[in-house]
Specification:
The chain is of the alpha/beta class. It has helices at 2-11, 16-34, 48-62, 80-88, 129-139, 186-190, 247-258, 273-279, 301-307, 324-336, 345-349, 371-378, 382-387, 389-400, 435-448, 453-475, 483-495; strands at 40-44, 67-71, 113-117, 145-148, 170-174, 192-196, 210-212, 235-239, 263-269, 285-289, 291-292, 295-296, 313-316, 341-343, 365-367, 403-406, 412-414, 420-422. The radius of gyration is 26 Å and the shape is elongated.
Length: 506
């Protein structure tokens, strides 16, 4: 967006002052929706974000609001378009509180709404001095906060937060969404995100490397035709299972079926085959593999390779367990399988600290870790992963040569070339045991249907999230939804219209 702004202003001659005016108008409208006639405090930094805030203050004053403007810098430090809007501001001059004064501002002095116009999209690192003091004061104000473009303190490019950051009720961002508004921890601070058109021309000769997954991805999903067969519809092999964990491969297999695969085979420990067969749909095929006390043994790799001779895709890991033999089995199968592979759960854990080995695979590979599993793959603490989700997802994809699906409410799909797709999330029904297995089966079904690894991962994440929302609608809320309910919603989620109502799980 910084480059788009530069292109619009410097190459097309769009006046920056006009863009600032429209940006301020969009924020002022958001404020008026929260408080049609209440008092407002606008807190400004010295840059263009502060300039936007000064426009907000002027427009709200003109609309009849009582407005107080607080600035973190002496007014003589404002420059360019921000200084112009400072001169345009009617009424009392803005106040520049001393550092000790920010903490002393009483809750009742903030008015009905606070506008955060401190730091914009050019900020990274940690706020210091008066800006940090102002952020802390805003967060203690106990009134709704409207942030201008990005909550101050959030890195707009990554969502990272190095120090203090504003907790916004609403964020009004301009022209297009910023990654930091959709990737945690920034996403958790952004509140409701509104994207405002401020007149920046379309068609900038710039390609974004991060984007949101939207409903258009559904158009890519494979469809069965009149001449389709069970194998051309997609063959999925689910490989896993161990004592006490037979449900995981079953859920992955059923998820693959409902996501569109025409033929699904569960490759499981021979001693557990009766248990899996008893709890599975009659359509599910099974292959019994050699095991030691219920854990898969390396001797079973050849049997899986044989079963994959018809093509399709493998899901490796659901319920696999962490026995030494099972880990060796997973490493060898990942190395030798020449069909697309989705690696999940203990299939991932078997590669902990050895992620680069997967780069030797010739066939497409998709990894589906949560933060803890990605931490083990990269030899990092899960807290480090959560702090820098975008950076670590990209690093894992580059190291492994695989598409990495870092799961969460802000699921990230990272390709080895650095391209990242972000799920808009809002699917709390998925916060229950087994839904990760369902996602693995879903992605494998799309892989087996002919989509490439990145498309399969994006479409699978989208379909999985939509199924979670549909399941929550059915039960009147997210609580009580099970992984089996999500599976049942996969087929309807493929065909539901893009304008579906998505309430019931907020």
């Amino acid at each position: 967006m910084r480059e788009v702004d530069r292109w619009a202003i410097e190459e097309l001659g769009v006046a920056g002052l006009e863009l600032m005016e429209r940006a301020g108008a969009a924020v002022a409208q958001a404020v008026e929706r929260l408080t049609p006639d209440g008092a407002v405090t606008v807190v400004c930094g010295k840059g263009n974000n502060g300039g936007d805030g000064l426009v907000v203050a002027r427009l709200l004053q003109e609309a009849g609001h009582e407005v107080r403007v607080l600035c973190t810098n002496p007014l003589k430090q404002f420059s360019g378009d921000a200084q112009t809007n400072l001169q345009r501001l009617p009424g009392p001059r803005p106040i520049c509180p001393k550092p000790s004064a920010w903490a002393a501002i009483d809750t009742g002095e903030w008015g009905a709404v606070v506008v955060d116009a401190l730091l914009g999209t050019g900020f990274d690192g940690e706020p210091h001095g008066a800006v940090a003091d102002a952020i802390e004061a805003i967060n203690h104000a106990s009134v709704p906060v409207v942030s201008v473009d990005i909550p101050s303190g959030v890195d707009a490019s990554s969502g990272e937060v190095a120090g203090s950051a504003v907790r916004a009720t609403v964020t009004v961002t301009f022209h297009a969404a910023k990654p930091g508004l959709w990737i945690r921890p920034g996403k958790a601070l952004a509140g409701v995100v509104e994207t405002a058109d401020i007149g920046v021309p379309r068609g900038a000769p710039i390609e974004a490397s991060v984007g949101l997954i939207d409903d258009a991805i559904g158009e890519l999903m494979p469809r069965r035709e009149a001449a389709s067969t069970k194998f051309t519809s997609g063959h999925v092999l689910v490989v896993g299972g161990s004592p006490g964990l037979t449900g995981a491969p079953t859920l992955a297999a059923h998820g693959a079926m409902r996501a569109g695969a025409g033929y699904v085979t569960a490759c499981i420990p021979a001693s557990l085959e009766p248990t899996v067969a008893a709890r599975s749909a009659p359509e599910l095929m099974t292959v019994a593999l050699p095991d030691v006390d219920g854990a898969l043994a390396v001797a079973g790799v050849a049997r899986v390779i044989e079963a994959s001779a018809r093509g399709g895709a493998i899901v490796l890991g659901p319920g696999l367990g962490r026995a030494d033999g099972a880990a060796q089995f997973a490493v060898r199968l990942a190395r030798e399988a020449d069909v697309p592979l989705v690696l999940d759960a203990d299939g991932l854990n078997a590669h902990a600290g050895r992620l680069s080995r997967l780069a030797d695979r010739d066939a497409p590979t998709v990894l589906t870790p949560h933060a803890g599993e990605l931490g083990r793959l990269l030899d990092l603490d899960s807290a480090e992963i959560e702090h820098s989700r975008l950076a670590h997802a990209r690093a894992a994809a580059a190291t492994s040569g695989a598409v990495v699906v870092l799961k969460g409410d802000d699921t990230l799909v990272a390709a080895p070339d650095g391209t990242v797709a972000v799920s808009a999330g809002a699917s709390p029904a998925l916060a229950t045991a087994g839904t990760g297995d369902v996602l693995g089966g879903t992605i494998a079904a799309l892989l087996s249907g002919g989509l490439d690894a990145f498309e399969s991962a994006c479409a699978g994440v989208w379909l999985h999230a939509r199924a979670g929302r549909l399941a929550a609608q059915r039960f009147g809320g997210a609580e009580g939804v099970t992984a089996s309910d999500v599976i049942a919603a996969l087929a309807p989620a493929r065909t539901v219209s893009a304008g579906m109502e998505e309430g019931g799980d907020d």
